[in-house]
Every structure is written in C-alpha cells, then in structure tokens.
C-alpha cells in the first residue's frame, strides 16, 4: 500500500532520506571544524527526528519554549536549551523539568535572573543572549555592566550555572552579505570569550541560524553552532542560497478540487491553516506561497516547468499552473507543495507522514 493511499486531506509529507542527508551534512560540517552541532528543534519538533540526529553524534538540542523542552525531557539528551528570553512566570515548570533533566535557559536582564536565583530548587544552566545587531532581543555586546550584573546576580545561588554566550544573527535572512554578518558575530563572541574565560574557563559560545551556517565555512573560535531549519529547508532557504530545491525534505500533499484550464489555474484544498502565510515575491511582483512538486510512490519530483501557489485563503489555494502540470493533473489527484517556511508549516500540520506510510510525531500533535 502506497503512503498516497492514506491521504484524503492536506498532509505534511516527510522524506526521511533527504532529512537524514541534511542532518549528516551539517553534522559533518561542524565536526570538520571542531564545533559541536546543537540544532534548534523549533523546526522539526519531533522525537523521531531527534533520534535520527543522535545517530550523527548530536547530543544536545535547543528548543524555543518550555512546552517543547518538556516534550524532549528524559529522552537521552545531555542538555536541552530553551533559546528564548526566559519567562519568569514559568519558573515552577522549569523547576519540575530540572529535577530529572539537565536544562539551560537564556537570560537578558537582572530581574529574571534574580527571580530564578530566588526560586530555583535544582541546578539550571544559562546563556546570556547577545544582541546580534538587528535589535530583536539580547544584551548589547558592549554592555559589560549588564552582563556583569547578570553574572553577579546568578552567583547568589548555586543553582544557576553560567554556560556561555548565545548569539542568533537572524538578519542573515534579510541581508545578502552573510559572510560579513558572521564575521562580526564571531568577532563579538570571541571578544566576550577572551574577556570572561579566565573567570569562567568552561564557558561556551554558540552562534546559529540556517542561512549563515549553510554557507559560512569558517566559524573561528566559536564552540557550538545551532541552526534549525536545515533539517527540512524550504523555499525561503532556496531563495537565500542555503540549499537547492532537491534538499527540501517536506512537502504538503494537497487534493486537487478544480481545474480552470482557460485560466491556467488549479484549485487545491490547502491554505493558510496548513502552510501559514509566509510568502516570496516573483520577479514580476506576483506572490508565491509554495512551489508545486509531483507526487509518486517514492516521494516527489520537481517538474521541469514551474507552478506555484499564487494565492491562499484559510482552506483554499490557487495554483498558477504550467501547461505541463495542466496536462498531468486531474480533479481528485494529489500534488505536493514545497513550503515557503517549513517551521511554520510543520507547526500548523502537527505531524508528518513518512514515505513508508508511518507517521512521525510533532510536539503540537502530542
């Protein structure tokens, strides 16, 4: 029985072979430079995919919420890092997790550090997040007063252990010169390591985002890299030059419900509730909500002529179809959509159907 026979509504497909290849490639890149790969699991959010990562020597992972941390607790990870400025309202949950799992958090101010110093009953590590230069979050790299205030506050308890500095240069998504961004980020972390390593000889520095980690070949003296989207990639990463279409490991299978040959349009059951609404712009100004691939029993193939989702609503999607697609597809068939942003699509869909017909888990579907 083909996995396709199980699909009657929008379903997120996972190509294990491509996913494993992506993991293996990034793990080898880290190993070749003597770095530790600590992937960010906000993309995959799956224990099964975590088990695949372990096969390539990965022993720590990063998550984006305490709910996600709980999902991976006590599953054989040496450490789980919550890479989001810690929410002090979740101190009780953190205490519970830290009873049995080595865990770390991200700190950016004295107030939350003091809250943890006052309430923690079990040991928790922490990284100080450094602002990468695009102003989303973090401590300014030159704000030694705040850095040292956080460190001094943490010293009030034996339960807060400084692990190092974390920097996410997310503006690689918006800037062509990723090499320069990483040069600046690596230099900032190197300066901080040199300044604080005498007092904290075991501190680690971590940098990570997929566009940068995919193309940068020299990470300097950074200890760890932490990309996330690389396990699946997506059409945004293709546009950014991180990968090729053949490297995208997930596709949304959608049923064809109508065809308008005179308009060269195909109506599919697949919209914003399945893909989210991330969008790329075509050279002529048209919107692109995902790229069409042709499904088969082995997975999918990339057609020679491009077709893409030109518009979506809540449940509907309209494909701008090539002649090749119009001559191939009929109402009732399934086609695949390579997502613009695989993290958001996976979060919307909450599970994966593998090509062997077995389901893979997702945090939100648990």
Automatic annotation (TrEMBL):
GO molecular function: D-serine ammonia-lyase activity
GO biological process, alphabetically ordered: D-serine catabolic process
Alphabetical list of Pfam families matching this protein: Ala_racemase_N (PF01168), D-ser_dehydrat (PF14031)
Span of domain D-serine dehydratase-like: 249-356
Protein's name in the database: Amidophosphoribosyltransferase
């Amino acid at each position: 029985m083909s996995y396709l026979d199980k699909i009657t509504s929008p379903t997120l497909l996972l190509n294990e072979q491509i996913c494993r290849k992506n993991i293996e490639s990034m793990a080898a890149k880290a190993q070749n430079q003597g770095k530790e790969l600590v992937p960010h699991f906000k993309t995959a959010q799956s224990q099964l995919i975590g088990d695949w990562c372990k096969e390539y020597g990965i022993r720590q992972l990063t998550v984006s919420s305490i709910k996600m941390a709980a999902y991976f607790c006590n599953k054989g990870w040496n450490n789980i890092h919550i890479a989001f400025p810690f929410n002090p309202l979740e101190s009780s949950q953190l205490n519970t997790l830290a009873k049995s799992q080595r865990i770390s958090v991200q700190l950016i101010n004295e107030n939350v550090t003091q809250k943890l110093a006052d309430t923690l009953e079990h040991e928790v590590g922490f990284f100080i997040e450094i602002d990468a230069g695009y102003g989303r979050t973090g401590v300014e790299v030159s704000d030694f007063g705040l850095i040292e205030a956080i460190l001094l506050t943490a010293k009030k308890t034996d339960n807060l252990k400084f692990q190092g500095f974390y920097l996410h240069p997310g503006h690689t998504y918006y800037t062509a010169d990723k090499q320069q961004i990483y040069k600046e980020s690596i230099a900032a972390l190197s300066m901080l390591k040199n300044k604080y390593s005498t007092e904290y000889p075991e501190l680690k520095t971590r940098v990570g985002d997929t566009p940068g980690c995919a193309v940068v070949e020299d990470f300097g003296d950074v200890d760890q890299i932490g990309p996330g989207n690389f396990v699946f990639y997506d059409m945004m990463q293709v546009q950014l030059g991180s990968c090729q279409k053949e490297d995208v490991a997930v596709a949304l299978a959608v049923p064809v419900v109508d065809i308008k040959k005179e308009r060269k349009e195909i109506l599919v059951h697949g919209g914003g509730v399945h893909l989210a609404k991330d969008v790329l712009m075509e050279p002529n100004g048209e919107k692109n909500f995902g790229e069409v691939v042709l499904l088969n029993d082995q997975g999918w193939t990339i057609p020679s002529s491009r077709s893409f989702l030109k518009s979506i609503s809540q449940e509907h999607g309209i494909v701008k179809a090539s002649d090749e697609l119009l001559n191939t597809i009929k109402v009732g068939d399934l086609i695949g959509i390579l997502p613009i942003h695989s993290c958001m699509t996976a979060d919307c869909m909450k599970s994966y159907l593998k090509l062997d017909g077995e389901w893979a888990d997702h945090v939100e579907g648990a």
